[in-house]
Write a structure and sequence with these properties.
single chain; 115 residues; mainly alpha; 0% strand
């Protein structure tokens, strides 16, 4: 399970790299929008890093709660993005949503097993 956890965390970080590159290319002439988009990239990197730390500490419920909260927030943001682009099957929110659902499931598993 640790391997899957780490793979999903690394996929999230790679998604953050793709998000950053895409934002820089797409919003290069809109500095305000670029700033907010890069803040989203920062969130993705931090969420991925915390998830990697949690993968190495499978019994840490505090980290599991933090990652679960971040995951729920990121799923909400991905769903909102899908609504804005008018396509729930767009590659970007779909991939981020599936990876994050996997990470949330592992967090919930950790929280349930510790009880």
């Amino acid at each position: 399970m640790k391997v899957i956890d780490r793979i999903l965390s690394c996929l999230l970080i790679l998604g953050g790299v793709g998000h950053t590159v895409g934002c820089i290319q797409f919003y290069k002439n809109e500095p305000m929008t670029l700033l907010w988009s890069l803040c989203t990239s920062l969130f993705i990197f931090l969420f991925g890093a915390i998830s990697l730390v949690r993968a190495g500490r499978p019994g840490d419920t505090t980290l599991a709660w933090l990652c679960l909260a971040a995951g729920i927030g990121w799923i909400a943001a991905s769903l909102r993005f899908a609504v804005l682009v008018g396509n729930f099957f767009d590659f970007r929110p779909l991939v981020f949503g599936l990876v994050t659902l996997g990470l949330c499931a592992i967090c919930i598993r950790t929280l349930i097993l510790k009880r």
